[in-house]
């Protein structure tokens, strides 16, 4: 069995005591895994960023700017570093689908840790890609991540325009009209799923739309806190 | 517009003939592609094929199941395979096809006097150059040019390349390293002024017109099939060429059926040496450097505390005494270490050492470089321009790059990364210039290895064959 990243044979340095590790299909070797940095210690209760305070400065800014926050909170798994950036680039942009498998146990564990106590009827809603990106890549990374969760996934959201959000300034992004549309109403609480939480704007656009159409609560689970 | 293009087959042929492309790589609109397919100018084949026992990627030749993975594809709404082996060149999937030209072949110009090179060849170079030229004229299948580091192999190719261009042949020079492509491009543009030349390497593909003379990294050859009359493969022994089976596969496919392949190496590996000995591979040997001086022979310096010194981020104990007694302190210095970690850890201690002994005047004269260093090109350039006096590096600078006047030191020459070929190549960095043909090469080690002894034997052997 080879490491999905460096392609070295993972069996090489393993004794019998490590046998159970091999059952974990589609993994990285220990050395590659050690390049992933999980978020730890004190974190912002709203956005998962590592901070000494209960809420980070970003989230405070949000609170002051807009009185109500459509998003209950976001929970992320990994810190942004150059290694995970490389993995994401190959997975998402090169389209190396199977690489995403390495995140499965982490995403699952984060869900168990943070969301199982929520109402039983929580449904996972991945942040969609534009049609153009979908044909380019052949898959949506957020859908893959949502598929790792032990709850129902529904593709409720759609992109309205394909214009690149990342080209706009933060202020622009927050004030521009909602890039999503909703397929149908939801009465269940929703867990939004995406790969990266950067400013939280994208997730909040989606959350607002859901809340306005009657969804009781919206949470977010993201792979990386950018 | 479309009609015009259709009438001008020859222009289309120069773009598409000899290529094997994913649909996204074809520089035409989909309506045009449809038209070409319906006119039987373009054909397709499945990108990935399966038989009972084997799956094959038709782009890179991969048959290793570990390099195939499944994807639930949104394009065709099925779950199927894609190839991970060649994914850096754009992903190919089971539901996709590869496109190739089946119209009239491309016609490349015949040149009267293609070479604008004004230099002259040494006797040794000329002998090899003539042999290469003959191989091209007679359309011999393949020939190996075994030329020592600093023999001037690029110039030896010029007469053969000229002959090919005179005959309207298409030529490719492929090398494993993008650095080398970048370095060769201006030299070849100068040597063949009237000829269309294109340089292809990862991320920086020369988007210009398809050229008669292509300089490319070996990976780029994955996009070609039956394209080149003359295929020159530089550094056949180098990583990743010898380690990755898809590269020789791509190189063989990119050459035309009756084309000539010329392999270049300074340090052939066992398989090529065997082929030579069994007379299965014609070869020409160039044991002399272009300046006529012998290759510098490495000196071994045993350092008992080597591991301890390196662990403590110190240069080996015998490094400083050697450094202070170099025969020509004006020379620049290349220091090779086995790992990126050591490059990072040794930089500051070495800076302190060099400054303390006034071997450099300020911190900007020493720098460190490794494979994933974003400023790699800049640093190599700074060393070439002598802004840097000392460069600390991994094996990435072992070959391909030429500096006129350097001494070379290896810390921990007994490490696995320094195999025989690497050591010969590293030693070959010294004494490259006619004005200073005698650089020093020192292996700091804590126990002789087979590779070290074999490398020194090989260098001495070549000097002997060169008449020294
Ligand atoms: Zn926060
Ligand atoms: Zn492939
Ligand atoms: Zn498909």
From TrEMBL, chain B:
Residues 134-286 form the Helicase ATP-binding domain. SMART domains: DEXDc, HELICc. CDD domains: DEXDc_ComFA. InterPro entries: Helicase/UvrB_N, Helicase_ATP-bd, Helicase_C-like, P-loop_NTPase. Residues 319-468 form the Helicase C-terminal domain. Keywords: ATP-binding, DNA-binding, Helicase, Hydrolase, Nucleotide-binding. One of its GO terms (molecular function) is helicase activity. The keyword Nucleotidyltransferase does not apply. The keyword Oxidoreductase does not apply. This is DEAD/DEAH box helicase.
């Amino acid at each position: 069995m080879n490491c999905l990243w460096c392609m070295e044979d993972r069996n090489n340095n393993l004794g019998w005591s490590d046998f159970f590790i091999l059952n974990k299909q589609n993994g990285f070797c220990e050395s590659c895994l050690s390049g992933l940095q999980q978020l730890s210690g004190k974190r912002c209760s709203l956005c998962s960023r590592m901070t000494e305070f209960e809420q980070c400065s970003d989230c405070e800014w949000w609170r002051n700017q807009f009185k109500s926050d459509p998003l209950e909170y976001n929970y992320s798994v990994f810190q942004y570093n150059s290694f995970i950036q490389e993995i994401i680039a190959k997975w998402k942009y090169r389209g190396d689908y199977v690489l995403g498998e390495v995140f499965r146990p982490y995403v699952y564990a984060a869900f168990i840790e943070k969301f199982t106590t929520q109402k039983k009827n929580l449904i996972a809603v991945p942040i969609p890609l534009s049609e153009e990106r979908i044909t380019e890549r052949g898959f949506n990374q957020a859908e893959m991540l949502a598929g790792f969760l032990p709850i129902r996934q529904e593709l409720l959201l759609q992109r309205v325009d394909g214009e690149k959000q990342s080209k706009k300034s933060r202020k622009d992004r927050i004030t521009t009209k909602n890039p999503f549309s909703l397929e149908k109403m939801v009465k269940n609480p929703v867990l939004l799923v995406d790969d990266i939480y950067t400013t939280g704007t994208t997730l909040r656009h989606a959350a607002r739309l859901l809340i306005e159409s009657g969804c009781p609560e919206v949470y977010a689970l993201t792979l990386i806190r950018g | 517009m479309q009609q015009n293009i259709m009438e001008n087959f020859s222009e289309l042929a120069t773009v598409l003939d000899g290529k094997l492309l994913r649909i996204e790589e074809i520089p035409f609109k989909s309506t045009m592609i449809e038209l070409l397919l319906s006119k039987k100018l373009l054909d397709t084949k499945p990108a990935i094929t399966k038989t009972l026992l084997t799956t094959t990627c038709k782009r890179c030749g991969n048959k290793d199941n570990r390099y195939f993975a499944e994807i639930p594809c949104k394009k065709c709404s099925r779950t199927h395979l894609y190839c991970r082996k060649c994914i850096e060149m754009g992903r190919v999937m089971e539901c996709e096809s590869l496109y190739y030209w089946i119209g009239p072949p491309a016609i490349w110009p015949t040149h009267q006097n293609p070479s604008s090179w004004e230099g002259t060849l040494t006797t040794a170079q000329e002998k090899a150059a003539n042999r290469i030229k003959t191989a091209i004229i007679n359309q011999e299948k393949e020939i190996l040019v075994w030329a020592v580091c600093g023999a001037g192999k690029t110039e030896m190719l010029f007469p053969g390349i000229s002959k090919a261009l005179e005959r309207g042949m298409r030529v490719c020079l492929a090398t494993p390293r993008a650095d080398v492509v970048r370095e060769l491009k201006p030299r070849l543009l100068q040597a063949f002024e009237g000829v269309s030349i294109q340089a292809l390497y990862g991320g920086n593909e020369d988007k210009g017109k398809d050229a008669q003379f292509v300089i490319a990294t070996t990976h780029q050859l994955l996009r070609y099939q039956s394209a080149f009359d003359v295929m020159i493969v530089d550094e056949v022994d180098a990583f990743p060429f010898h380690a990755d089976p898809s590269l020789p596969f791509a190189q063989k496919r990119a050459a035309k059926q009756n084309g000539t392949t010329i392999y270049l190496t300074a340090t052939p590996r066992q398989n090529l040496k065997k082929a030579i000995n069994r007379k299965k591979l014609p070869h020409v040997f160039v044991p002399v450097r272009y300046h006529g001086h012998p290759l510098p022979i490495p000196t071994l310096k045993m350092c008992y505390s080597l591991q301890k010194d390196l662990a403590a981020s110190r240069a080996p104990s015998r490094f400083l005494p050697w450094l202070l007694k170099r025969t020509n302190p004006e020379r620049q210095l290349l220091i090779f270490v086995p790992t990126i970690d050591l490059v990072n850890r040794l930089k500051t201690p070495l800076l302190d050492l060099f400054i303390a002994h006034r071997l450099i005047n300020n911190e900007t004269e020493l720098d460190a470089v490794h494979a994933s260093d974003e400023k790699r090109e800049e640093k190599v350039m700074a060393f070439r321009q002598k802004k840097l006096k000392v460069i600390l590096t991994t094996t990435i600078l072992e070959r391909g790059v030429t500096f006129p006047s350097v001494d070379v030191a290896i810390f921990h020459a007994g490490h696995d990364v320094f195999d025989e070929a690497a050591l010969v190549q590293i030693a070959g960095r010294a004494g490259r210039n006619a004005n200073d043909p005698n650089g020093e090469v020192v292996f700091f080690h804590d126990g002789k290895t087979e590779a070290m002894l074999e490398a020194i034997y090989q260098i001495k052997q070549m000097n002997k064959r060169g008449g020294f």
